[in-house]
Amino acid sequence: MEFDIKSILDFSTKYLKDKSLSPRLDAEMLLCFVISKKRNWIYSHLDFKVDEKTFEMYRSLIEKRSQGVPIAYLTGKKEFMGLEFDINENVLVPRPETEELVEKVIKDAKIEGWKKFLDFGTGSGAIAISIAKFLPDAHVWIKDINAEAIKLALSNAKKLGVYERIHISEENEFDAVVSNPPYLTIDEWKSSDLHEPYEALVGGESGNEIYIDVLKNYKACRFYFEIAHPFRKSLKEIFERFGRYEILKDISGRDRIAIIYIFGKG
Description:
Elements: E1 3-4, H1 5-16, H2 23-35, H3 39-43, E2 49-50, H4 52-66, H5 71-75, E3 77-80, E4 83-86, H6 96-112, E5 116-120, H7 126-134, E6 139-143, H8 147-159, E7 166-167, E8 173-179, H9 186-190, H10 198-201, H11 209-217, E9 219-226, H12 233-242, E10 243-249, E11 255-262
Helix pairs in contact: 1-2, 1-4, 2-4, 6-7
């Protein structure tokens, strides 16, 4: 039995309607993945027939997506800053909002002439590799408690041509420190339906533990963090102990980026 693309997409979109915020896009992306075609191709070949074996593979992915498994875990790929990263279930899936954090760091680095960075909690290496890619003189140190994440980040660095400027040796002084740390509280995590690693999501009882760890243990002119919305009062009190700070909103108007200017620096 064969199934045409139009019927497959219509059925899958309807199936995912109450299970995804973007059912049609999810259906298209997974179909493109299993048949190795681009989205513009499938729309010019809506009558193309998919064989039964391929359809069964696709249906299995749709079922997993309906259970909340991220698209990136199903395809093993995620675009970030225009670059394609390999992704697996050991790491957080890079978010579009985090691109705004990276863009701000790159903009400031060009003004300040920074060349030495730390990406704390690197995961797939999306932040570190993007900085290295868009700042040709930059060297970026990466840190993650998950050895599998480090392995993936280095693999992505090699794939994207910046391996020689990504480092894992221990350093504690940088021009700038950048981090999208785990920042959910334990209660927030318990009430969520996220499928990503606990250690990549939860920043302890208060959600603030990693911020304290980074600010205490590393030296830099400036720290750039992704934060939870709304900006927590408890986190505000932590930042005030270390320096002057500002909070930037993302394109959706949500508190997203915290920049800490360390007393006497930056």
